[in-house]
């Protein structure tokens, strides 16, 4: 099973690769791209720390909001909104786990104004013939981990990210069919409303 997962990941990464580019993207170019992406919706494949694979739909509405709807049989729903992140288990009658968005590396790309040239935000930049990868962290909270962002060019596109948390575990999210500039309702990112919908008796 693990060999199959590794082969699947390799195939997904090869599909995500964009056109050949000999020059790496600059931080200003990437910052401008991220700041222009106020809303987006698409599919994702997630490689979990234990090697298992999950799929689903992602909704992004900057600043500060994202929603991961996982496909069955995964019962999870992850939302960020109102400065918090909530992790739901749709099969459980328990309230979701919640913690501040600012305590996660994902806050780097969900902030209102992204400036990757900010001091201590970028810790590494690498590039090859197809992509540019930057490793970013919150300069005020480096202990919470970091996020690696993989971009292709012509046009510039965010293809995947790898989050390393404070414990050193990594989660990879590969994006596909990302549509930008859509009108996404605020209710998609309303944690309190989601709690009420899933647990109407509370």
Strand residue content: 35-45%
Count of helical stretches: 4
CATH superfamily: Lipoprotein localisation LolA/LolB/LppX
Binned, the helix content reads 10-25%
Can you tell me the CATH topology? Answer: outer membrane lipoprotein receptor (LolB), chain A
- Mean pLDDT reading: 86
Q: For the CA atoms, what is the radius of gyration?
A: 17 Å
Number of strands: 11
Give the CA-CA distance, first to last residue: 41 Å
CATH architecture: Clam
Taken together, the total number of domains comes to 1
Name of the CATH class? Mainly Beta
Low-confidence stretches: 1-22
SSE run = HHEEEEEEHEEEEEH
Major sheet: arrangement of strands: 6-5-4-3-2-1-11-10-9-8-7
Structural class: alpha+beta
Question: Globular, elongated, flat, extended or rod-shaped: what is the shape?
Answer: globular
Major β-sheet annotation: 11 strands, antiparallel
Write the layout of secondary structure elements.
Elements: H1 2-16, H2 27-36, E1 39-47, E2 53-61, E3 65-70, E4 76-81, E5 84-89, E6 97-100, H3 107-110, E7 122-127, E8 132-136, E9 145-152, E10 157-165, E11 170-180, H4 191-198
Protein architecture, described:
The protein has helices spanning 2-16, 27-36, 107-110, 191-198, and strands at 39-47, 53-61, 65-70, 76-81, 84-89, 97-100, 122-127, 132-136, 145-152, 157-165, 170-180. The protein is an alpha+beta fold and 202 residues long. The chain has one domain (2-198): outer membrane lipoprotein receptor (LolB), chain A (Clam). It has an 11-stranded antiparallel sheet, sandwiched between helices. Strand 8 (132-136) and strand 9 (145-152) form a beta hairpin. The longest helix has 15 residues, at 2-16. The chain is globular and about 55 Å long. The termini are far apart. Mean pLDDT is 86; it is low at 1-22.
């Amino acid at each position: 099973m693990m060999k199959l997962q590794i082969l699947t990941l390799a195939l997904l990464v090869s599909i995500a690769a964009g056109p050949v580019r000999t020059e790496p993207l600059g931080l200003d170019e990437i910052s401008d791209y991220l700041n222009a992406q106020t809303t987006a919706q698409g599919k994702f494949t997630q490689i979990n720390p234990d090697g298992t694979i999950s799929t689903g739909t992602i909704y992004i509405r900057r600043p500060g909001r994202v929603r991961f709807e996982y496909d069955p049989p995964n019962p999870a729903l992850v939302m960020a909104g109102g400065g918090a992140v909530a992790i739901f288990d749709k099969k459980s009658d328990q309230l979701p786990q919640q913690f501040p968005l600012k305590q996660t590396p994902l806050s780097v790309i969900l902030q209102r104004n992204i400036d990757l040239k900010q001091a201590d935000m970028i810790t590494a930049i690498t590039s090859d013939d197809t992509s540019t990868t930057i490793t970013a962290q919150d300069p005020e909270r480096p202990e919470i981990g970091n996020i690696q962002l993989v971009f292709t060019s012509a046009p510039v596109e965010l293809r995947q990210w790898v989050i390393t948390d404070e414990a050193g575990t990594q989660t990879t999210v590969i994006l596909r069919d990302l549509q930008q500039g859509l009108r996404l309702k605020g209710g998609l990112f309303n944690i309190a409303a989601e709690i009420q919908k899933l647990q109407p008796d509370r």
